[in-house]
């Protein structure tokens, strides 16, 4: 159902990390093209052209919030989600993950698994997804088409790997470049080049250890020729870092991406738990994004991205959140919560770094991560990483309506139906407090409607 209506009720978004914007009793006009036509507090102020639209009134226990933006998902690992995170990263790839991904040489397998992943994302409130596909062109096209069909906003990449990958999954350098370019052209033909396009191609070198210099350089050329986003992994874990040191003595991920033409304001690098300050500085200067995937980072790197420290030391460094399906088994909500928790024990991340925990704590000042900050990271911050802060992530006139309707009244007036919701409502909470409870203890049961571009997709 395409909305052309006015929603009247409470809207919550987080334009800054420090405070929620709670707008109670507002009228929000959603036009047929999915744009927020007007936001006003009095019905009488509605513009003439909107006055005849149907007004849909929210219940007192319902709020509308921006959809969540997940900046790092491995689509072909979805079947593995929730299992097999018991060994270090490089062994995990070899033993479990490359075999799971290679199964996507079968288009039938892709057609079976990918729609299920997208349903899982939408159900859990993710309205924009940045996805790694497998190394296969046809399965990655199926992923892009599945996103389009389900209505999720997506950035999709054909993963590239021409080295250090098992024979049954490796690509040739030329094949990888050719398939990448074909995928980009195919996406542009189908969905257009602009940021309005529902599905956008992303250049996707898997990570430095599986990509030859020639492949990286070629991918950098394609990214520039077609003005595409780039996604990859950087400074993820001790074993990954050690491997890069063997392959490229004295050199590190960020500088290799930069020299290959892959680092700029359309680059999003996942993990970055072991980034040196000088590298964070380069990323800040060039406008690249750090994608913190806290659940996966703790499992594999036993480390975290020090978000408040980066905010005070590199104030223009873009940071967003990712689930890293299936290296992490949490949803976006789980990763928002882990972001809050990791902040309190951030000192363990300092162990192998240049900066000490004490330095970081002093610099933190007012930057403690709480539920507001975590929600900001999952919405407005993610939008900024994708250059879409004027389109999604918050609610302003002229922006697209990518949103969730949350309901906190599912337990019934008397709190009787406890299984309908994960948390208990006592009846005297403000809607802001109920929203906080959702971020900290709620789940998908509270997500009752999901819209992308004003279209109801769940
Ligand atoms: N580095 C290279 N490939 C992967 C992957 O699939 N997941 C994670 N977390 N890190 C990687
Ligand atoms: Fe990853």
From TrEMBL:
Domain Amidohydrolase-related, chain residue ranges per copy: 63-457
Superkingdom of the organism of origin: Eukaryota
**Alphabetical keyword list:** Hydrolase, Metal-binding, Zinc
**What are its GO biological-process terms?**
guanine metabolic process
Claim: Repeat is one of the keywords in the record: no
**Pfam families linked to this entry:** Amidohydro_1
Entry GO MF terms = guanine deaminase activity; zinc ion binding
Cofactors: Zn(2+)
* An example Gene Ontology CC term for this record: cytosol
* Name of this chain's protein: Amidohydrolase-related domain-containing protein
What is the originating organism of this protein?
Answer: Orbilia blumenaviensis
């Amino acid at each position: 159902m395409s909305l052309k209506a006015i929603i009247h009720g409470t809207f919550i978004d987080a334009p800054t990390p420090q405070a929620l914007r709670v707008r109670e009793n507002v009228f929000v006009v959603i036009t047929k093209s999915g744009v927020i036509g007007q936001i006003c507090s009095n019905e009488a102020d509605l513009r003439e052209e909107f006055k005849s639209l149907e007004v849909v009134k929210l219940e007192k226990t319902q709020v509308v919030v921006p959809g969540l933006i997940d900046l790092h998902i491995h689509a072909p690992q979805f079947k593995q989600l929730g299992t097999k995170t018991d060994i270090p990263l490089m062994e995990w790839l070899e033993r479990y993950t490359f075999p799971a991904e290679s199964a996507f040489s079968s288009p039938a397998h892709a057609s079976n698994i990918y729609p299920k992943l997208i349903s899982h994302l939408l159900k859990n409130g993710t309205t924009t997804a940045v996805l790694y596909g497998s190394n296969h062109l046809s399965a990655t096209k199926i992923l892009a088409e599945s996103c389009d069909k389900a209505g999720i906003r997506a950035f999709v990449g054909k993963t590239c790997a021409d080295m250090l990958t098992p024979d049954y999954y490796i690509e040739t350098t030329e094949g990888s470049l050719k398939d990448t370019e074909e995928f980009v052209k195919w996406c542009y033909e189908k969905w257009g080049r602009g940021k309005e396009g529902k599905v956008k191609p992303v250049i996707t070198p898997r990570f430095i250890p599986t990509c030859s210099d020639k492949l990286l350089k070629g991918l950098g050329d394609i990214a520039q020729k077609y003005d595409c986003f780039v996604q990859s992994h950087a400074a993820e874990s001790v074993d990954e870092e050690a491997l890069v040191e063997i392959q490229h003595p004295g050199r590190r991920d960020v500088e290799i991406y930069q020299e290959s033409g892959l680092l700029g304001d359309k680059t999003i690098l996942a993990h970055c738990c072991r980034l040196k300050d000088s590298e964070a500085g380069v990323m800040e200067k060039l406008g690249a994004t750090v994608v913190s995937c806290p659940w996966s980072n703790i499992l594999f790197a036993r480390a975290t991205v020090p978000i408040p420290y980066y905010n005070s030391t590199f104030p223009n460094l873009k940071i967003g959140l990712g689930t890293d399906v299936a290296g992490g088994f949490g949803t976006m909500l789980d990763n928002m919560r882990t972001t809050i928790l990791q902040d309190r024990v951030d000192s363990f991340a300092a162990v192998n770094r240049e900066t000490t925990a004490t330095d970081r704590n002093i610099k933190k000042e007012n930057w403690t991560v709480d539920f507001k900050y975590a929600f900001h990271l999952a919405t407005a911050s993610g939008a900024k990483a994708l250059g879409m802060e004027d389109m999604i992530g918050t609610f302003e006139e002229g922006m697209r309506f990518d949103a969730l309707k949350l309901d906190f009244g599912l337990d019934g007036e008397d709190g009787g139906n406890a299984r309908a919701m994960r948390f208990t409502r006592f009846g005297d909470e403000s809607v802001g407090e109920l929203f906080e409870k959702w971020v900290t203890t709620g789940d998908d049961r509270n997500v009752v409607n999901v819209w992308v571009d004003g279209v109801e997709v769940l």
